[in-house]
Amino acid sequence: MKPRQLPQPRLSRWMDLGERVETLQQEALAAEAQVARLRTLLSSRTTDKTVEETNAAAASFDSVYADAQVKRSRADAQGRLSLSIKKWIEALPGNTKLIIQHVSLDGHDLARVRVELAKLRDELRTLQGNPPASSDIGKRIDDLVADWAHAARPMVRGFAAGQAFDVRWPMAPDANRQNGNGFNIGEGNGLLLFAAMFPAELSELIFRAIHAAQPLSVLEHGERVNAVTTRIHELSYIEAALVERHGGDHSVDASPWCILGVRLPADEGDAAVEVRDDVALRHESAPSA
Fold first, then answer.
1. Integer Cα distance of 265 and 95 in angstroms
2. Three-state SS for 98?
3. Quick one: which of 23, 29, 86, 164 is 20 to 30 A from 192 by CA?
4. 3-state secondary structure 220-248
């Protein structure tokens, strides 16, 4: 699909974004030229500059440099965003009929919307970084503790009559019983000994740690992920519309279709693949009909 095939209002939005990027690039270049001018002035050894000019350049350099850095960062970020949107559009089949997504902006403030979006994205990252425990987690814990208990066995020598009795304890699960490396007299690995003496208590301790990291069941986790991604999706449309209304930079975390204010029809066909791929990268759900 070509950008010119976008619905007319969204084609205008796409072109406005391109013009915005161009403006930001020009502002960044101008700011960088100012930094270069000050550097030249400060490093020049000519006598045609006054003390006042040199002092003024030195006093203003840090702020001018910082401003140039900010402008370059904004220009590059919006440029990358514009390119990602272009790639998304061009990856859609040529016969895709995008639908304009209308949103109500009543009662919405851009700053508050972005605060909520940031919290939701943080929660989604936490959810995805802590998937629910597998259905066989109890057995997996017990098997691990059993392995530790087995590894806790001391290495004993000299237990026959007349021999010097020798007991050495493993310092780690991989202590070598063939050559004795990793075994010590009078000292052993506390975790292994705990597993051998109190396996049920250790299994329960591990299980409680898992529950603390992810207290949700598979069903609850899936429902929460869906709820969070749906809300992110809704707010991303609103955020983009507010930027269009009041100006400013689009969020680099927003999906292309949200920034354009479009969605795919119910019969998405191959276009849905592109959406799902993008979602996997951005941790957001694809538009639905």
1. 12
2. coil
3. 164
4. HHHHHHHHHHHHHHHHHHHHHHHHHHHCC
> At residue 99, what are phi and psi to the nearest 5 degrees?
-110, 135
Place of tokens 């276009």: 271
Q: What is the pLDDT of residue 53?
A: 84
Give the largest CA-CA distance in the chain. 102
CA distance 171 to 192: 9
- With a CB cutoff of 8 Å and minimum separation 6, the contacts of 268 are 275
How do the domains of the chain map onto residue ranges?
Answer: 1-91, 103-132+216-289, 137-213
Instruction: Return the percent helix, strand and coil in the chain, to nearest 5.
Output: 65, 5, 30
Average pLDDT per 10 consecutive residues for the chain, totaling 289 residues: 88 90 96 93 79 88 95 96 94 90 92 96 92 92 97 94 94 93 93 96 96 90 95 95 91 92 68 38 37
Q: Which value, in Å, is the radius of gyration of the alpha carbons in the chain?
A: 31
Within 10 A of 79 (CB to CB), how many other CB atoms are there? 17
Spatial distance between the Cα atoms of 120 and 141, rounded to a whole number of angstroms: 32
Neighbours of 236 (CB within 10 A): 25
CA dist., res. 165 & res. 40, Å (int): 82
